[in-house]
């Protein structure tokens, strides 16, 4: 590796280029590239990430040689600009900016106007002929330097500024006079001395090195570390430092500054899209004090006269040209910053722009249609998770912004189910149902949900809980239903009984209107008016024709391309005929997990279920089961119909029985009356069923062993439904799945019993039905003994939720107590319930697949945990050789796309990404 | 394999011998052996286990050729005895007995007098000259045949017998006359016809084959299957059938029958020990209707005139001679059955006799001293578990027998802690402490125990619970304390609040006296007066001199021999200086697990612990921890002292914090007052700490991460204690263990923190202390990533309790709901918390050892779960290459012996077992 630490860019020539992001960071590499392209960029240089890493290796000391290289580079800038750094008459001023490979909040951002001091500010006043400008620049510099280098809270500077404005009776900064600003500078310097114990440094060299080291240090601050952890960015990358000659957008007339996207980042529309401010420095645009104007006339909501296009047509034309050249070079939408100093345009930054799912999709297809990128690149460029944005109802970002400004943001939790919903607060499932009965949209708000709340969740537009994680009951069920959901909003205190919730001094009562954004996790007071997505309207509501739905058409095109590439089959987790149809509309190629217990919660059924559970003898239990049989059979028949021609994997009863029991006094009373037994007897039985660790308790196949009649009933319902459906011409492929197998003995006992029932049903009906019996792999021991299990089982389906719980020893209901800290401190790179832990849990999956196929080479293997819809996990499952993944209906498109990208990644990528 | 199915023995010649137990069963092989030895055995033959297995393979059909072989063998018997089978005048009568390789309750036992029918009985009456004998024999035959072949409950026959006795006004069977018995025979036959629908079979051939097939079938009956499962006997062995000429001990004068052991099975004393009855059939001895006499004069409690030695001196001398010959042949104590027909002695059975732990030990040493067996055989012959019998207080078996007969047996549970205890019932820890304060022995009776009950457990003589399994809190703690304990006595209904328990219609109130036998699991009403073992008195109470304690001396000799053989180190799980000293007395070579949380429950401490947990800020928490520091330090110093020169492995806090919280209203009130906060605030905090699945929740190193100050305090207490102890000349080797590691990151963070504290403490003290930091391997993921963990950790200690919970997905608190059925149905061969599951859990242990040593070849690896004291598990750990096992103090001798046996087994055994 070259020992070079500093890379210059000036006068159309640069030492670096856009491919050197590792060394120069994103900003530096792109400044170098733009310079080489002949795009006007203020001259400057980049101190490489290598220098940053050496700084840390040396224990916060500057590497030798850096001093000389920076000095040399500064001399170049002086030569190019014809000014001298530290000169008191016409000083060369520079900006210092961080620039890591990936843009990162929390990193030190920018120090402007570096080089000013008490003397140089007078020189600047003279040379610019604008004393106000000079002291405003000095004031800004002291504040930025004080904040990021000396770690004096910027609020303390702002307080002084506010006091001055108040004293002068003015509303905005620009109304302060040169004299005001001069006084403010004196106050700022006094603050610096008081807070840091030293006077504000007057030596520009000292200022420069102080800033450079502050950038280095900011690489290691907490916020940046957390961000890297969240986005899987390696700590070893380090940051570069960009030092650039200042250009000023605030030097009076003919000056401006702006930010723009080369295409609309919200919609993807192929138009330059951005904002600018006349006579301002860059930070003023985002500060929101003055309202910026639109870049183009087209973008203007007025007559266009407020646009840059109207105000500075030449610069606008130049920007359009630069836009074209940047997109040709980068082959993607760019996010740019620019400054116009006295009519001269300078580009300060270009980078690939962030965008919504909709924009990402449209831009990718537009670039394809413009022949800029290839088909596989289109498929590879759209983050699968972004598709959920296309599918989910949404709030208008402007509405959210307004609500925030109005102080209507109530709290924040984990974004568990994407999409937006507004409705009145219901603190119980019953209340939610009441609202639904009166056609009132409701948001179910609970500390946490249980299967008892299912009806309430169905009746609600969205769910909000103060406890639980991304795979808590509320989160899983809500995603399954495609409902917006926020969980673990710990700052919100909920009192369900009293009917209120509190956060930050505000109280919301039952019946009050709130809005939840399940994509961001934010909760708002009042109605933010969500609207359904276009795809939803075409595929689900069928209220829109495909031809009239351009977003749907893009979606369909993307899915078609992805389907051609992928080799993994994508199934769905669905428990009802409705869900099955929905998932099929979204492209599911069968059901990977039909949870029979969800069918047990309907009003008509729960009574029979409870009778079955609380029965004291086999006869009573069989009687109750006999009531359930026709209901389950009907469900299964509906599902077979919806999945005509596709496999349907049905899991026999899994959860501990006490989950079905009443938990309220009145429910006990009703049930006791129905069953003709005493309330005390029922309660005693319920108490007997309660467990210390239900997740590790009497559930799954353990129930099948101790209450064989339950599985018998279910097997009968499945096979009878299959016979009926087949007789109606439906092609059925039932797969009966036995859950929670830990020993092959359990499997064999239950398999034999199920098979016996199946054989009897088919013999009676006199027909043949192709069916398979297999097992869910969710207990570590099952994976460890997979060869034994596969010798008997016809298929494996990995239940990676439970497998993760047991492999890590984490209860997903309780992980909220330490997970946030574990993620913060990078003990876990990611929530293992969200994305599979390839190292540990994945090792058991691999052992399971390998062991299983050693005993049965053509073993069908899938996954039905929540991971089936997580793109990173889908890639892992593809690599592990699974036959299919299964996920909730709304995740099916995500999985299809992720499965295609897994193939592309395996082939070494497409040569292009979204970074 | 030979196709021979029948093996004869008669006239001093036999087809089989004692080594053919697989084929002939234990009984048959030994009858053949005795025959060849010239010992008088009634002639007979054995149908091999192969015939039995063929019978099942053929779907309950007799294998071809068996008929002919049996016929041929019967002809031999006819020839030898000079009688004909089915003859009406002087019929040959035979017995039919099952005989598997291992003796097994539940198997069909015996049919006597087979060959009798309505005509032959008359012949027998004539030939024997004893009509009463003939009809009594016929009556017995019908009853036995009816019971085991025709499956007519024997109670129905007994009812008829009782009715007859009542009618005749006699108390015992023998007072019934020939005429009475003749009538009874008629009634029996009527019963058979009524119950089976067919008359009692008159054809002796039919009787014979019915009996043979009944023996075959009994191999597969439920009780036999359960027994095999419990004792790990393969289903594929099958049973043999022994057909033997009848000899009669009930033919009047000169006739007798008896059972004996060649040595005393309770004490091991080298004397023929047994019982006999004049003029009786074998079943009468065990039936308990007539009181049998002692075999020898020495054994007699009277003047010896009631002994066989006095009554039939010739036969007695002959028995002594046979005893000598049998022991020389079998090299072990034998359990024999004999019958004397008109002065002629016949041996009916010999087998290795069951014995108590005491007897096993004494007999082994005596045989060694007699030069019958070698040293390694002594070590190999004593079942390690039996040692606990030598260590535990015991009830006199006669006292138990008497109590049972008096109907004082109250219930039965799992024998969780061996030993006997009597005391008054206390339904709460407080009540137990109250009793203890007044020096009243108490038995703590709870539905289940929690750490809150610890003081009550300490205060009690024994523990009885109605819930929980062999590794429930009560069981583990009780074994650790060496206290008798019965858990999971489900038939007993306990109402702690009301202060009573019920079982089988009887009610016991608080303060009533009960006795519990933790070795058998039996609960008795009243005081059965337990007494401490000799070893206990020598080693623990120090109230007996070793020289005066012969049992202790044997124990010490055995341990010395075992220690020479074993390679595994044996440590102990001990939490207090007392336990440490105790364990050391029992031979512990260090502490493998010191659970620091148990120290938190003392009266003086729990307050500070609760303050620590419920603190709302770091300051309050640190204040509470500062109170705990000196207490923990004192504990550790005491432990180091007790373990001078030996390693002490201390586990940092492990259980979820809410385990320490108050759970009663009054406790909350006291604490709230102490802490100066509201009860409601405390309760809310407690509620926040509660978890759905605490076993998978916020515990272990997860607490260490989120509350770093707890581990810091503990590390400080350990190292400060080590410094103090070392300054006093004690050699300390602390090992600090971080529990529940799932990722190496957790370990590194906590290791660094602990090391920092240790370095600071040592620097301040200016001394060097050898210490190690390592981790507990109890999360599957830790085993899967063992190489990563071992790169950082200095030792591994497998926590196989938790590892078993997570690998199987079994909560040990809840497993009681299905474990009994899982064991019954042989889904699990054994409770995996009792004996390690080598296939699954063991695979993770092996991966952990292999992975760990791949990164750190000299990695010290031990096990500290309950399995460390289980002999089968110790053998597994030896084979897996562990350095040490650790177990509760009272299991240390067991582990030492088991570790020695593991070495012997590895070397291919000693050529002798206890089977």
Automatic annotation (TrEMBL), chains A, B:
Record domain Pyruvate phosphate dikinase AMP/ATP-binding: where: 22-57, 67-295, 316-369
All residue ranges annotated as the PEP-utilising enzyme C-terminal domain in the record: 555-902
Annotated binding of substrate, by residue: 595, 651, 778, 799-802
Signal peptide positions on this chain: none
Cofactors required: Mg(2+)
Catalysed reactions listed for this entry: pyruvate + phosphate + ATP = phosphoenolpyruvate + AMP + diphosphate + H(+)
PROSITE patterns: PEP_ENZYMES_2, PEP_ENZYMES_PHOS_SITE
Residues binding Mg(2+): 778, 802
Top-level taxon: Bacteria
Domain (PEP-utilising enzyme mobile) ranges: 441-521
Keyword hit for Amino-acid biosynthesis: no
GO MF: ATP binding; kinase activity; metal ion binding; pyruvate, phosphate dikinase activity
Entry-linked InterPro entries: ATP_grasp_subdomain_1, PEP-util_enz_mobile_dom, PEP_util_AS, PEP_util_C, PEP_util_CS, Phosphohistidine_dom_sf, PPDK_AMP/ATP-bd, Pyruvate_phosphate_dikinase
The UniProt record lists the keyword Protein biosynthesis: no
Positions of the catalytic residues: 473, 864
Record EC number: 2.7.9.1
Keywords for this protein: ATP-binding, Kinase, Magnesium, Metal-binding, Nucleotide-binding, Pyruvate, Transferase
Family: Belongs to the PEP-utilizing enzyme family.
Functional description taken from the UniProt entry: Catalyzes the reversible phosphorylation of pyruvate and phosphate.
NCBIfam families: PRK05878.1, pyru_phos_dikin
Protein name per UniProt: Pyruvate, phosphate dikinase
Origin species: Candidatus Polarisedimenticola svalbardensis
């Amino acid at each position: 590796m070259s020992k070079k630490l500093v890379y210059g860019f000036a006068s159309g020539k640069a030492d670096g280029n856009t491919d050197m992001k590792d060394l120069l960071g994103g900003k530096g590499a792109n400044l170098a590239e733009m310079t080489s392209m002949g795009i006007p960029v203020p001259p400057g240089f980049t101190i490489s990430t290598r220098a940053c890493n050496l700084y840390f290796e040396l224990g916060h000391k500057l590497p030798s040689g850096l001093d000389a290289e920076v000095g040399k580079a500064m001399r170049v800038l002086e030569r190019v600009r014809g000014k001298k750094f530290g000169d008191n008459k016409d000083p060369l001023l520079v900006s210092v900016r961080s620039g890591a490979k990936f843009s990162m909040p929390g990193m030190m951002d920018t120090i402007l106007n570096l080089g000013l001091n008490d003397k140089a500010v007078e020189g600047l006043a003279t040379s610019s002929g604008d004393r106000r400008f000079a002291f405003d620049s000095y004031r800004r510099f002291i504040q930025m330097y004080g904040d990021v280098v000396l770690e004096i809270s910027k609020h303390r500077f702002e307080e002084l500024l506010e006091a001055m404005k108040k004293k002068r009776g003015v509303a905005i900064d620009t109304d302060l006079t040169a004299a005001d600003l001069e006084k403010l500078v004196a106050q700022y310097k006094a603050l610096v001395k008081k807070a840091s114990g030293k006077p504000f440094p007057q030596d520009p060299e000292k200022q420069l090195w102080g800033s450079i080291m502050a950038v280095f240090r900011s690489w290691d601050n907490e916020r940046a570390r957390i961000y890297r952890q969240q986005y899987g960015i390696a700590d070893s990358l380090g940051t570069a430092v960009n030092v650039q000659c200042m250009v000023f957008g605030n030097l009076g007339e003919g000056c401006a500054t702006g930010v723009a996207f080369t295409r609309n980042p919200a919609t993807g529309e192929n138009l330059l899209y951005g904002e600018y401010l006349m006579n301002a420095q860059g930070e003023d645009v985002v500060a929101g004090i003055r309202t910026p104007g639109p870049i183009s006339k087209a973008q203007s909501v007025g007559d266009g006269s407020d646009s840059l296009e109207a105000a500075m047509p030449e610069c606008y034309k130049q920007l359009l040209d630069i836009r074209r050249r940047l997109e040709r070079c980068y082959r993607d939408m760019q996010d740019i910053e620019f400054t116009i100093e006295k009519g001269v345009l300078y580009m300060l930054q270009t980078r690939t722009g962030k965008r919504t799912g909709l924009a990402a999709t449209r831009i990718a297809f537009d670039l394809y249609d413009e022949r800029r990128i290839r088909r596989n690149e289109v498929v590879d460029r759209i983050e699968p998770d972004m598709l959920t944005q296309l599918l989910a109802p949404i709030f208008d970002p402007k509405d959210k912004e307004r609500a925030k400004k109005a102080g209507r943001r109530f709290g924040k939790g984990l974004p568990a189910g994407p999409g937006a919903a507004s409705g009145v607060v219901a603190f119980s499932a019953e209340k939610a149902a009441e609202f639904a009965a009166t056609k009132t949209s409701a948001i179910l708000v609970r500390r946490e949900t249980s299967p008892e709340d299912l009806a309430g969740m169905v009746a609600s537009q969205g769910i909000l809980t103060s406890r639980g994680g991304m795979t808590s009951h509320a989160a899983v069920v809500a995603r399954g239903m495609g409902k917006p959901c926020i969980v673990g909003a710990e700052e919100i205190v909920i009192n369900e009984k009293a009917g209120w919730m509190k956060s930050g001094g505000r109280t919301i009562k039952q019946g009050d209107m709130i809005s939840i954004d399940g994509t961001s996790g934010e909760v708002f007071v009042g109605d933010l008016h969500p609207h359904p997505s276009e795809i939803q309207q075409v595929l689900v509501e069928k209220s829109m024709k495909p031809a009239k739905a351009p977003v749907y058409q893009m979606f369909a095109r993307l899915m078609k391309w992805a389907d051609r590439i992928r080799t993994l089959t994508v199934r769905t987790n669905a428990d009802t005929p409705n869900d099955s149809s929905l998932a099929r509309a979204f492209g599911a190629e069968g059901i990977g997990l039909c949870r029979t217990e969800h069918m047990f919660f309907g009003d008509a059924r729960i009574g029979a279920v409870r009778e079955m559970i609380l029965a004291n003898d086999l006869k009573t239990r069989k009687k109750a089961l006999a009531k359930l049989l026709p209901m389950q059979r009907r469900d299964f028949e509906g599902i077979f119909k919806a999945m005509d021609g596709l496999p349907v994997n049905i899991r026999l009863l899994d959860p501990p029985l006490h989950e079905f029991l009443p938990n309220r006094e009145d429910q006990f009373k009703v049930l006791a009356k129905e069953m003709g037994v005493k309330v005390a007897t029922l309660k005693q039985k319920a108490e007997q069923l309660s467990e210390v660790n239900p997740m590790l308790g009497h559930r799954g196949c353990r129930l099948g062993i101790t209450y064989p009649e339950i599985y018998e009933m279910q097997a009968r319902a499945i096979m009878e439904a299959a016979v009926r459906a087949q007789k109606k011409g439906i092609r059925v492929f039932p797969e009966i799945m036995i859950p929670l197998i830990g020993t092959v003995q359990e499997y064999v006992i239950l398999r034999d019993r199920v098979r016996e029932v199946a054989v009897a049903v088919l013999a009676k009906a006199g027909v043949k039905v192709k069916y398979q019996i297999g097992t869910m792999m969710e207990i570590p021991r099952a994976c460890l003994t997979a060869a034994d299990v596969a010798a008997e089982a016809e298929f494996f389906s990995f239940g990676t939720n439970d497998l993760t719980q047991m492999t890590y020893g984490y209860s997903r209901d309780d992980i909220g107590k330490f997970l946030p800290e574990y993620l913060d401190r990078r003990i876990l790179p990611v929530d293992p319930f969200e994305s599979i832990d390839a190292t540990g849990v994945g090792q058991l999956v691999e052992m399971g697949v390998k062991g299983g196929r050693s005993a049965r080479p053509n073993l069908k293997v899938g996954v039905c945990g929540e991971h089936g819809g997580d793109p990173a996990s889908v890639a892992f499952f593809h690599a592990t050789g699974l036959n299919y993944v299964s996920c909730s209906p709304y995740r099916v498109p995500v999985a299809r796309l992720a499965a295609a990208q897994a193939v592309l990644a395996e082939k070494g990528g497409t040569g292009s990404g979204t970074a």
